[in-house]
Protein backbone atom coordinates (compact mmCIF):
# COMPACT_ATOMS: atom_id res chain seq x y z
CA UNK A 1 0.00 0.00 0.00
CA UNK A 2 1.15 3.53 -0.66
CA UNK A 3 0.65 6.35 1.84
CA UNK A 4 -2.48 7.68 0.14
CA UNK A 5 -4.12 4.27 0.33
CA UNK A 6 -3.15 3.88 3.99
CA UNK A 7 -4.60 7.29 4.78
CA UNK A 8 -7.82 6.53 2.91
CA UNK A 9 -8.31 3.24 4.73
CA UNK A 10 -7.60 4.87 8.09
CA UNK A 11 -9.86 7.82 7.27
CA UNK A 12 -7.17 10.39 8.13
CA UNK A 13 -5.39 13.12 6.13
CA UNK A 14 -2.49 11.96 3.96
CA UNK A 15 -0.29 14.59 5.62
CA UNK A 16 -0.62 12.83 8.98
CA UNK A 17 0.36 9.46 7.52
CA UNK A 18 3.25 11.11 5.69
CA UNK A 19 4.43 12.64 8.99
CA UNK A 20 4.54 9.20 10.63
CA UNK A 21 6.39 7.82 7.61
CA UNK A 22 8.97 10.62 7.67
CA UNK A 23 9.63 10.55 11.41
CA UNK A 24 9.74 6.76 11.67
CA UNK A 25 11.63 6.21 8.42
CA UNK A 26 13.30 2.81 8.34
CA UNK A 27 14.04 2.90 12.06
CA UNK A 28 13.43 -0.29 14.04
CA UNK A 29 10.18 -0.84 15.88
CA UNK A 30 9.88 -2.85 19.11
CA UNK A 31 7.88 -6.01 19.82
CA UNK A 32 4.88 -6.16 22.09
CA UNK A 33 5.25 -8.21 25.25
CA UNK A 34 4.14 -11.82 25.03
CA UNK A 35 0.37 -11.98 25.22
CA UNK A 36 0.59 -14.33 28.21
CA UNK A 37 2.59 -11.69 30.11
CA UNK A 38 0.32 -8.80 29.19
CA UNK A 39 -2.26 -9.10 32.01
CA UNK A 40 0.44 -8.81 34.68
CA UNK A 41 2.03 -5.85 32.88
CA UNK A 42 -1.32 -4.09 32.52
CA UNK A 43 -1.88 -4.57 36.24
CA UNK A 44 1.50 -2.98 37.01
CA UNK A 45 0.57 -0.11 34.73
CA UNK A 46 -2.54 0.60 36.80
CA UNK A 47 -4.96 -0.43 34.04
CA UNK A 48 -8.46 -1.18 35.33
CA UNK A 49 -9.98 -4.59 34.67
CA UNK A 50 -12.54 -3.28 32.17
CA UNK A 51 -9.89 -1.47 30.15
CA UNK A 52 -7.54 -4.45 30.39
CA UNK A 53 -10.27 -6.77 29.08
CA UNK A 54 -10.74 -4.55 26.00
CA UNK A 55 -7.00 -4.36 25.39
CA UNK A 56 -6.64 -8.14 25.59
CA UNK A 57 -9.67 -8.64 23.31
CA UNK A 58 -8.04 -6.50 20.63
CA UNK A 59 -4.53 -7.92 21.00
CA UNK A 60 -2.56 -7.78 17.70
CA UNK A 61 -2.27 -11.54 17.21
CA UNK A 62 -0.73 -12.42 13.81
CA UNK A 63 -4.00 -13.98 12.62
CA UNK A 64 -6.37 -11.43 14.17
CA UNK A 65 -9.02 -10.25 11.68
CA UNK A 66 -9.24 -6.99 13.65
CA UNK A 67 -5.81 -5.94 12.46
CA UNK A 68 -5.89 -4.80 8.86
CA UNK A 69 -2.64 -4.13 6.99
CA UNK A 70 -2.97 -0.37 7.44
CA UNK A 71 -3.47 -0.72 11.21
CA UNK A 72 -0.44 -2.99 11.46
CA UNK A 73 1.59 -0.49 9.44
CA UNK A 74 0.54 2.38 11.71
CA UNK A 75 1.27 0.42 14.89
CA UNK A 76 4.73 -0.58 13.69
CA UNK A 77 5.67 2.90 12.45
CA UNK A 78 4.22 4.69 15.51
CA UNK A 79 6.35 2.53 17.80
CA UNK A 80 9.41 3.27 15.65
CA UNK A 81 8.59 7.00 15.64
CA UNK A 82 8.47 7.22 19.44
CA UNK A 83 11.42 4.87 19.96
CA UNK A 84 13.57 7.01 17.65
CA UNK A 85 13.16 9.91 20.09
CA UNK A 86 14.07 7.94 23.23
CA UNK A 87 15.28 10.46 25.79
CA UNK A 88 13.25 13.27 24.22
CA UNK A 89 11.13 15.49 26.42
CA UNK A 90 8.87 17.46 24.08
CA UNK A 91 5.28 16.58 23.20
CA UNK A 92 5.26 14.06 20.37
CA UNK A 93 2.02 12.93 18.70
CA UNK A 94 2.57 9.24 17.88
CA UNK A 95 0.19 9.29 14.92
CA UNK A 96 -3.17 10.50 13.64
CA UNK A 97 -6.34 10.50 15.71
CA UNK A 98 -8.28 7.36 14.79
CA UNK A 99 -11.99 6.57 14.69
CA UNK A 100 -12.09 4.76 17.99
CA UNK A 101 -15.62 3.43 17.62
CA UNK A 102 -14.37 0.95 14.98
CA UNK A 103 -13.35 -1.59 17.62
CA UNK A 104 -10.56 -2.36 20.10
CA UNK A 105 -7.74 -2.40 17.54
CA UNK A 106 -8.63 1.16 16.51
CA UNK A 107 -9.50 2.30 20.02
CA UNK A 108 -6.32 1.04 21.66
CA UNK A 109 -3.71 1.16 18.89
CA UNK A 110 -1.58 3.69 20.76
CA UNK A 111 -1.95 1.68 23.97
CA UNK A 112 -0.32 -1.25 22.17
CA UNK A 113 2.43 1.11 21.01
CA UNK A 114 2.95 2.19 24.65
CA UNK A 115 3.12 -1.46 25.77
CA UNK A 116 5.72 -2.23 23.10
CA UNK A 117 7.90 0.57 24.47
CA UNK A 118 7.76 -0.40 28.16
CA UNK A 119 10.91 -2.55 28.03
CA UNK A 120 12.71 0.08 25.94
CA UNK A 121 12.03 2.95 28.31
CA UNK A 122 12.71 0.83 31.40
CA UNK A 123 16.09 0.05 29.90
CA UNK A 124 16.63 3.79 29.49
CA UNK A 125 15.69 4.23 33.14
CA UNK A 126 18.12 1.53 34.25
CA UNK A 127 20.90 3.15 32.22
CA UNK A 128 20.28 6.31 34.26
CA UNK A 129 20.15 4.49 37.59
CA UNK A 130 16.44 5.11 38.10
CA UNK A 131 14.74 2.78 40.54
CA UNK A 132 12.06 0.34 39.41
CA UNK A 133 9.63 1.95 41.81
CA UNK A 134 9.89 5.28 40.00
CA UNK A 135 9.71 3.57 36.59
CA UNK A 136 6.49 1.74 37.33
CA UNK A 137 4.92 4.66 39.18
CA UNK A 138 5.62 6.89 36.17
CA UNK A 139 4.42 4.42 33.56
CA UNK A 140 1.26 3.62 35.53
CA UNK A 141 -0.10 6.96 34.34
CA UNK A 142 -1.36 4.86 31.43
CA UNK A 143 -4.01 3.25 33.62
CA UNK A 144 -4.99 6.58 35.16
CA UNK A 145 -5.46 8.15 31.74
CA UNK A 146 -7.44 5.22 30.36
CA UNK A 147 -9.78 5.47 33.35
CA UNK A 148 -10.25 9.19 32.72
CA UNK A 149 -10.91 8.56 29.04
CA UNK A 150 -13.53 5.94 29.90
CA UNK A 151 -15.21 8.40 32.24
CA UNK A 152 -15.12 11.01 29.45
CA UNK A 153 -16.61 8.53 26.94
CA UNK A 154 -13.58 8.84 24.69
CA UNK A 155 -13.32 12.63 24.72
CA UNK A 156 -9.98 12.67 26.49
CA UNK A 157 -7.77 10.34 24.50
CA UNK A 158 -6.69 12.61 21.61
CA UNK A 159 -4.67 14.64 24.15
CA UNK A 160 -3.59 11.67 26.22
CA UNK A 161 -2.03 9.68 23.37
CA UNK A 162 0.53 12.46 22.84
CA UNK A 163 0.95 13.08 26.57
CA UNK A 164 1.94 9.47 27.22
CA UNK A 165 4.85 9.59 24.79
CA UNK A 166 6.64 11.68 27.43
CA UNK A 167 6.56 8.69 29.78
CA UNK A 168 7.50 6.24 27.03
CA UNK A 169 10.66 8.19 26.13
CA UNK A 170 12.00 8.97 29.61
CA UNK A 171 11.00 12.62 29.42
CA UNK A 172 8.80 12.68 32.52
CA UNK A 173 8.89 11.17 36.00
CA UNK A 174 6.27 10.85 38.72
CA UNK A 175 7.90 11.70 42.03
CA UNK A 176 5.34 11.73 44.79
CA UNK A 177 2.41 14.09 44.21
CA UNK A 178 3.74 15.78 41.06
CA UNK A 179 5.03 14.73 37.68
CA UNK A 180 8.30 16.34 36.58
CA UNK A 181 9.18 16.90 32.92
CA UNK A 182 12.72 17.38 31.67
CA UNK A 183 13.43 20.42 29.51
CA UNK A 184 14.92 23.88 29.89
CA UNK A 185 13.23 23.91 33.31
CA UNK A 186 11.69 21.13 35.38
CA UNK A 187 8.11 21.27 34.17
CA UNK A 188 5.50 20.43 36.79
CA UNK A 189 2.30 18.54 36.04
CA UNK A 190 -0.49 17.75 38.48
CA UNK A 191 -2.05 14.31 38.03
CA UNK A 192 -5.51 13.53 39.37
CA UNK A 193 -4.12 11.79 42.43
CA UNK A 194 -5.54 13.26 45.60
CA UNK A 195 -5.26 16.57 47.46
CA UNK A 196 -2.62 19.05 46.34
CA UNK A 197 -1.49 19.78 49.89
CA UNK A 198 1.53 22.02 50.51
CA UNK A 199 3.27 19.18 52.35
CA UNK A 200 2.79 16.75 49.46
CA UNK A 201 3.94 19.35 46.93
CA UNK A 202 7.05 20.24 48.93
CA UNK A 203 7.96 16.57 49.39
CA UNK A 204 7.68 16.03 45.63
CA UNK A 205 9.81 19.10 44.90
CA UNK A 206 12.46 17.92 47.36
CA UNK A 207 12.50 14.54 45.66
CA UNK A 208 13.00 16.21 42.28
CA UNK A 209 15.81 18.41 43.64
CA UNK A 210 17.73 15.23 44.44
CA UNK A 211 16.50 13.12 41.49
CA UNK A 212 17.65 15.17 38.51
CA UNK A 213 21.24 15.91 39.61
CA UNK A 214 21.64 12.23 40.49
CA UNK A 215 20.19 10.69 37.33
CA UNK A 216 20.75 13.45 34.75
CA UNK A 217 23.95 15.14 35.94
CA UNK A 218 24.56 16.81 32.59
CA UNK A 219 21.26 18.68 32.81
CA UNK A 220 21.31 21.72 35.06
CA UNK A 221 18.03 23.15 36.27
CA UNK A 222 17.58 26.54 37.89
CA UNK A 223 13.77 26.69 37.87
CA UNK A 224 10.58 24.74 38.23
CA UNK A 225 7.86 25.79 35.82
CA UNK A 226 4.21 25.08 35.26
CA UNK A 227 1.68 25.99 32.62
CA UNK A 228 -1.89 25.50 33.75
CA UNK A 229 -5.30 27.00 34.32
CA UNK A 230 -4.59 26.28 37.99
CA UNK A 231 -2.29 29.33 37.93
CA UNK A 232 -5.05 31.65 36.69
CA UNK A 233 -5.28 34.52 39.25
CA UNK A 234 -9.01 34.73 38.56
CA UNK A 235 -9.39 31.71 40.84
CA UNK A 236 -8.55 34.02 43.75
CA UNK A 237 -11.97 35.61 43.28
CA UNK A 238 -13.64 32.36 44.26
CA UNK A 239 -11.35 30.22 46.42
CA UNK A 240 -10.44 30.78 50.08
CA UNK A 241 -6.94 32.07 50.76
CA UNK A 242 -5.93 28.85 52.52
CA UNK A 243 -7.08 26.51 49.72
CA UNK A 244 -4.51 24.12 48.29
CA UNK A 245 -4.80 25.65 44.82
CA UNK A 246 -4.21 29.18 46.08
CA UNK A 247 -1.22 28.07 48.11
CA UNK A 248 0.15 26.26 45.05
CA UNK A 249 -0.28 29.43 42.98
CA UNK A 250 1.68 31.49 45.49
CA UNK A 251 4.85 29.55 44.74
CA UNK A 252 5.04 30.99 41.22
CA UNK A 253 6.07 34.21 39.59
CA UNK A 254 3.77 34.43 36.58
CA UNK A 255 4.97 35.28 33.10
CA UNK A 256 3.20 38.10 31.28
CA UNK A 257 -0.04 36.75 29.85
CA UNK A 258 -0.06 35.66 26.22
CA UNK A 259 -2.84 33.74 24.52
CA UNK A 260 -1.40 30.21 24.26
CA UNK A 261 -1.41 28.64 20.82
CA UNK A 262 -3.52 25.51 20.58
CA UNK A 263 -4.78 25.62 24.19
CA UNK A 264 -8.33 26.61 25.16
CA UNK A 265 -8.25 27.11 28.92
CA UNK A 266 -12.04 26.79 29.21
CA UNK A 267 -11.84 23.36 27.58
CA UNK A 268 -8.94 22.29 29.81
CA UNK A 269 -10.78 23.37 32.95
CA UNK A 270 -13.86 21.35 31.99
CA UNK A 271 -11.69 18.38 31.02
CA UNK A 272 -9.87 18.31 34.35
CA UNK A 273 -12.56 19.42 36.81
CA UNK A 274 -15.66 17.76 35.35
CA UNK A 275 -14.20 15.17 32.97
CA UNK A 276 -16.71 16.22 30.33
CA UNK A 277 -16.57 18.51 27.32
CA UNK A 278 -20.15 18.06 26.15
CA UNK A 279 -22.36 18.37 29.24
CA UNK A 280 -24.22 21.72 29.27
CA UNK A 281 -23.04 24.04 32.02
CA UNK A 282 -26.43 24.05 33.75
CA UNK A 283 -26.33 20.25 33.97
CA UNK A 284 -22.89 19.93 35.54
CA UNK A 285 -23.02 18.74 39.15
CA UNK A 286 -21.15 21.13 41.43
CA UNK A 287 -20.11 19.44 44.65
CA UNK A 288 -17.08 21.60 45.50
CA UNK A 289 -16.24 25.29 45.73
CA UNK A 290 -13.95 24.88 42.71
CA UNK A 291 -16.63 23.27 40.58
CA UNK A 292 -19.13 26.00 41.43
CA UNK A 293 -16.50 28.65 40.64
CA UNK A 294 -15.80 27.11 37.22
CA UNK A 295 -19.46 27.07 36.24
CA UNK A 296 -20.34 30.51 37.66
CA UNK A 297 -17.38 32.07 35.83
CA UNK A 298 -18.33 30.56 32.47
CA UNK A 299 -22.03 31.24 32.88
CA UNK A 300 -21.17 34.89 33.49
CA UNK A 301 -19.66 34.97 30.00
CA UNK A 302 -16.09 35.09 31.29
CA UNK A 303 -13.20 32.87 30.29
CA UNK A 304 -10.41 31.09 32.12
CA UNK A 305 -6.79 31.69 31.23
CA UNK A 306 -3.85 29.37 30.83
CA UNK A 307 -0.96 30.91 32.76
CA UNK A 308 2.69 29.97 33.03
CA UNK A 309 4.94 30.63 36.00
CA UNK A 310 8.28 29.69 37.52
CA UNK A 311 10.09 29.58 40.83
CA UNK A 312 13.71 28.72 41.70
CA UNK A 313 14.83 25.16 42.29
UniProtKB/TrEMBL annotation:
* InterPro entries reported in the protein's UniProt record: GNAT_C, NAT_N
Q: Which residues form the GNAT-like C-terminal domain?
A: 181-311
Q: Which domain of life is it from?
A: Bacteria
A matching Pfam family: NAT_N
What transmembrane ranges does the database entry give? none
**N-acyltransferase N-terminal domain location:** 37-170
Q: What is this protein called?
A: DUF5596 domain-containing protein
Amino acid sequence: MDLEEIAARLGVPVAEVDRVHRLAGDRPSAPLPAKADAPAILDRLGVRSDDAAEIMAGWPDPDSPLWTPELRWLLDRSIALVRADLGGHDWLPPGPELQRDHGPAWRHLYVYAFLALVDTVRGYHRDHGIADEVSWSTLADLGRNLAVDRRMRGEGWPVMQSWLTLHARGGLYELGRLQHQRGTTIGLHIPDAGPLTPAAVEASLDEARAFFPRHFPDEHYAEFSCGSWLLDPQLLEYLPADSNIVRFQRRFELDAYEEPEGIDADVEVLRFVFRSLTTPLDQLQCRTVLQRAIVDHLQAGRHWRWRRGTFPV
